[in-house]
Design a protein that fits this description.
Distance between the termini: 66 Å
CATH class of one domain: Alpha Beta
Number of strands: 28
Number of helices: 18
Largest sheet: 8 strands, mixed
Radius of gyration: 25 Å
Shape: globular
Amino acid sequence: MTQTRALRETAAAVRPAGSHRAWLRALELTAPITTTPQRVLPTVIDELAAQFDEAPALLSDRESLSYRALSERSSRYARWALEHGIGTADAVALFMPNRPEYLAIWLGITRVGGVVALLNTHLAGGSLAHCIDVVAPRHIIVAAELIEPFLTALPHLAGAATIWLHGTGHGNFPRIDLDVERHAGEPLARGEGRPPTIEDRALYIYTSGTTGLPKAAKVSHFRLMQWSYWFAGLMGVRGGDRMYDCLPMYHSVGGVVAPGAALVGGASVVLRERFSAREFWSDVVRWDCTLFQYIGELCRYLLHAEPAAGETQHRIRLACGNGLRPDVWDDFKRRFGIPRILEFYAATEGNVSLFNVDGKPGAIGRMPPFLAHRVPAALVRFDVTREAPVRDAQGRCVRCATNEVGEAIGKILEDESNPGRRFEAYTSQEASEQKILRDVFEPGDAWFRTGDLMRRDEEDYYYFVDRVGDTFRWKGENVATLEVAEAICAFPGIREASVYGVAVPGADGRAGMAAVVPDAGLDLAAFRAHLTDRLPGYACPSFLRIRCELDVTTTFKHAKYELVRQGYDPAASADVVYFNDPERGAFVQLDQALYDGIQTGRIRL
């Protein structure tokens, strides 16, 4: 009996038909990856071009590429790379907005062994220079429209890479878009360069940099294949589908998962340069999309947007992504008429993946029993004060009980038949070592630290609770910022909320503070009563900051660093700050005298 057949029979015995079909599609599509190690995503594109020819592959208002044109365009970039001596493991940095050409460039360069670093297009100056320097590229490709922010990084660069301009607008650099036209577009012949295998590195994709400067995660060709075929299987991608992708292509979800899953399934991808809540549904209807990819708070922004004509006139059959919060889930699905939501949990560099194939509201995934041996993951008790897992008297980590919150970890396995369990790490050895937990359950074992706190219920569904470092202790209790934010956003008229802990002189731990964006005329008395009813006393925010909008990262996560730095000082910003005064039983506006009283300990929280 083959492994796939055995899994099929086991899955059928333990899950409902609709659910196990999705799992089996994913398993069957990914099973051949390790048996054909020289079949990588760029060569798959050639196979698809032979099959689908002029069928649309990548669509946008700027340009479109058929399967044939994508294959030919990537072959031109492959030959450009060979001409300029780019070989195995040589890095090329790409600084370009979302567009079909973006995918053609990195498919071509990785086809001959090059490694493409996908640079965040919102960076400039020293931050951008840091991201470039950590991968030491031989060449840097810069889109003409991004030349100004790139030039601010130029004085900070340590290396001497050759800079190529894509498009018009700056005469000091050679034009790569013109140079590639000299090269042939047919598939590479045997002997043209060393073809990579699934073991070779393909991309550098950067972390968000929420805990310091961004780190460059190594992404192998295996991962590109695994992500593309796995999601194609779970989503049941078919030839008539169109995937709407408005997420940054320099991240793994917007740049690999969404386009990769659609393409290997014979579908089309509609690329938009950036997300727009106002134009989202009109785009989806205009392009006749059937799938879309989301991340972070994108769905909340759509839910808070004014009603749009196209929001219920679409043909979307499935929304796939991660970060859809429980307080938004049902309202989002009902208002926009979304038949199915596929929520998942994963990290670019990590080895812990969870998938909510059943569409259970609020859950980030479930570990089917028939896959548990292939994906060894665990939740371990976590000490919020020390920001480290709890260890017992023997120095071993302690597994969480059902519904107990702990850090998710994944066992690192050097197994050739299961490369998905590896930790491919970062370019920085120090940063890589910080993500590894050793001697966890037995001497010498090694586990990847996700840095995420979760809980697992009685049915083995997992729920995201908070990021390590966001959860804080107050009055001897752990406070999960996302759970408090959900309670806040359940109050009518609150559009967004970001919760964090702030230091208070003379007090242990950190007091809760919330920055909120209300519609208008927030009833503070009713709001306080709402929080008191929904949250324990230690979790109710001690401070409230009223804002017109919240800053977010490029992956639609709230940016908290500046909020935490300013704290509750009313003079630190133009925002109105309120104090949850326990003596008066009310939110009162925080003025300088009240602030000074808290600072000196005269007023106790």
